[in-house]
Design brief:
Ubiquitin-like (UB roll), 645 residues, 42% strand, 4 domains, mainly beta
């Protein structure tokens, strides 16, 4: 029996007088309804369907009744369904039938079939009956390979390892393996390879031998690529993102990679890269890159009203309004270069109108710097400052960032950033300058940042597999100038292991994180704001936010220069849009290297509940410090968005 052959390329009230009328008329109306619409007389609305009272499953021996019900969208009513009743629905019944049949089919019951019917009771109640005919379960007795090229046999057999003798015969899985085998050939110059799945059944249909027969066909090379749909964008802007080259050996992976790279330019709403005339199987197929462009210009205006509460008893409460305007072009002269301008103004409007601040900014992006796929991002800002009626000083600041970024392969990316800042304070005596800067918290920062990451997670919000590694370094001050002089290093590694073959949340997540910083010289002090802090929803649950490590005389955390952190978390789906976690956190921070003592590493453990939203999981965690002490501060709840890591 052959599997399907793959494509070559991939609802009036009445008021009446008299006691007689009050009695007879309602009874007559009910009788009329009972004759004409008998089901409605019972409160049953066929359009809505009857309320499901019970679900009965018959004929199931291999799977439990609970397992069958898990596949169904039709559910029995429970006490909590008092506002929205669960009703029988024909469309849902059809879908449930398909789901139950599929459950059996992927487990070797090739002839299994189910039937779902609703049996109406009184008071619009329905009993749902699921009748199952299981049939015989077929298992794989032997798996073999025939045909194909010897040079790809190792890769092909690797794809076949997901199948084992003794496994239930699953046609869906067989088709997946056949597709994966075809992909091996399609990525190595043989897109017309034909993979047939031959199944030989035993007489009792309990055993089946599976043979994957490969016919490689001819070797194929890329031809020319032409573009279609371009109006503003220059053709070379799209073509330079392609990884397929004329004369190179055909590769399906390169076609997909090319599509992704073109889409990443953010110039197009739609793209497709298709071969011309694939039905005639050309040896050097030409390709058409079809594109739908986005509008290059964009504009935006935003106003925000805020209430500022007094920080000290002598201050007044006031209202502010902020205005932000933006204009930009994402495709300058069709070259993919981007430019944007923004202006920000903030005003106090109550108790009187007063301008608080202004900020003007411009940004520019060069997507291919010096002819390489390196992105150059420039942004500059200017804040002219304003004079206060109370304070005659005016603070003017300007600065910007120069950022280079480069993507290597699919998962790896590096950044190099230089940040510059200049602050000028006018109308202040020189002898008061330093004390004023310290009072206002003004720090001039100039720094170089070099960072890189490798991200192979399948989903950044709810990862089921993959890993995330990051290296982050900062050099602040020194020859760059500024008020601070220090360096920082952060290393982080996270791993996500899916504990089941099914695509559900059943994951063991691990994170290790290390951080170190120090002044550029012995006399240089690392500012409190820049130090490492630990404790809270994303680091050590069970402790207050940023409460761990060295403390001042008042008992407030002052941060540290050495950080060690480890997290182990088991994540599992619960029901509907809920999930739960069990976690262990360990770590601490120290001020100096000589203070590091592994006996001081703190440990916490706890559980959490998550509600999955479109922007990630909303979670409540409860962490407890270990060993458990009789103190109210050893346990704590944490509310946060997204997983801790």
């Amino acid at each position: 029996m052959n599997a399907p052959i793959f494509d070559h390329m991939g609802n009036r009230k009445y008021a009446m007088k008299g006691h007689f009328i009050h009695i007879i008329f309602p009874l007559a109306f009910i009788a009329f309804q009972s004759v004409i619409f008998p089901s409605r007389a019972l409160g049953y609305d066929p359009a809505k369907g009857g309320i499901i009272d019970k679900i009965e499953v018959q004929g199931n021996r291999f799977f439990s009744t609970g397992k069958i019900k898990d596949q169904m969208r039709l559910k029995e009513n429970r006490w909590f369904n008092m506002f929205k009743k669960r009703r029988f629905n024909l469309k849902k019944a059809e879908m449930d039938q398909f789901a139950i049949d599929s459950l059996y089919h992927v487990n070797g019951f090739l002839e299994a079939e189910s039937k779902i019917e609703g049996v109406e009771k009184e008071n619009s109640r329905v009993i749902v009956r699921v009748i199952i005919k299981e049939g015989i379960q077929t298992k794989i007795s032997k798996i073999s390979l025939s045909g194909g090229l010897a040079e790809f046999e190792g890769k092909v057999r690797k794809e076949m390892k997901v199948l084992k003798a003794g496994d239930p015969l699953n046609r869906v899985k067989l088709n997946e393996v056949a597709f994966d085998i075809k992909t091996v050939y399609a990525n190595n110059g043989y897109p017309y390879a034909d993979i047939q799945t031959l199944i030989t059944m035993s007489k009792d249909k309990r055993q089946a031998e599976v043979i994957f027969n490969v016919s490689e066909d001819k070797k194929v090379f890329f031809g020319e690529v032409s573009c279609k749909g371009l109006k503003r964008t220059k053709e070379n802007v799209a073509k330079r993102e392609l990884t397929i080259k004329k004369g190179e050996v055909y590769s399906r992976a390169k076609i997909i990679d090319s599509e992704q790279r073109v889409f990443s330019t953010e110039l197009f709403n739609y793209i497709s890269l298709d071969a011309k005339d694939p039905e005639i199987k050309p040896q050097n197929p030409d390709f058409i890159l079809k594109l739908v462009e986005k509008k290059p210009n964009y504009i935006g205006v935003k106003a925000e009203l805020a209430q500022n509460r007094p920080q000290t008893p002598d201050q007044q409460e006031y209202l502010t309004v902020d205005f932000t305007g933006k204009w930009g072009n994402r495709n300058l002269a069709g070259t993919s270069r981007k430019i944007g301008f923004s202006a920000y103004h903030s005003y106090k409007i109550i108790p009187k109108i007063e301008r608080l601040s202004n900020r003007f900014a411009v940004g520019y992006v060069e997507p291919w710097f010096l002819g390489t796929r390196t992105v150059l991002n420039l942004d500059f800002y200017y804040e002219p400052g304003v004079k206060s009626a109370v304070q005659p000083y005016r603070i003017e600041s300007f600065g910007g960032n120069i950022n280079f970024s480069r993507e290597f392969k699919s998962y790896t990316k590096i950044w190099l950033t230089h940040s510059y800042q200049q602050v000028n304070i006018y109308n202040i005596p020189p002898e008061e300058l330093e004390s004023y800067k310290e009072e206002q918290g003004i720090n001039i920062r100039r720094k170089i940042i070099l960072s890189g990451e490798r991200d192979s997670r399948d989903n950044i919000f709810i990862p089921l597999k993959g890993s995330f590694s990051q290296v982050h370094t900062e050099y602040v001050g020194g020859f760059l100038g500024g008020d601070n002089n220090f360096y920082k290093l952060i290393l982080s590694w996270s791993k996500y292991n899916r504990l089941t073959k099914r695509n559900i949340i059943n994951v063991l997540a691990t994170r290790l994180k290390f951080g170190y910083m120090d002044g550029l010289s012995r006399k240089d002090r690392v500012p409190t704001f820049d130090r490492f802090y630990m404790g809270g929803a994303s680091t050590m649950r069970g402790y207050k936010e940023n409460s761990m490590g060295p403390k001042d005389e008042g008992g407030d955390a002052t941060g540290g220069k050495i950080m060690l952190l480890g997290n182990l978390e088991y994540r599992r789906a619960l029901f509907w849009k809920f999930g739960y976690t069990v976690f262990v956190d360990a770590g601490n921070i120290w001020f100096r290297t000589k203070h590091v003592n592994f006996k001081e590493i703190k440990v916490t453990s706890g559980i959490g509940i998550q509600f999955f939203t479109p922007v990630g999981p909303l979670r409540i965690d409860y962490g407890r410090q270990l060993p458990i002490k009789e103190s109210p501060d050893t346990g704590r709840f944490h509310l946060s968005i997204l997983y801790a890591f």
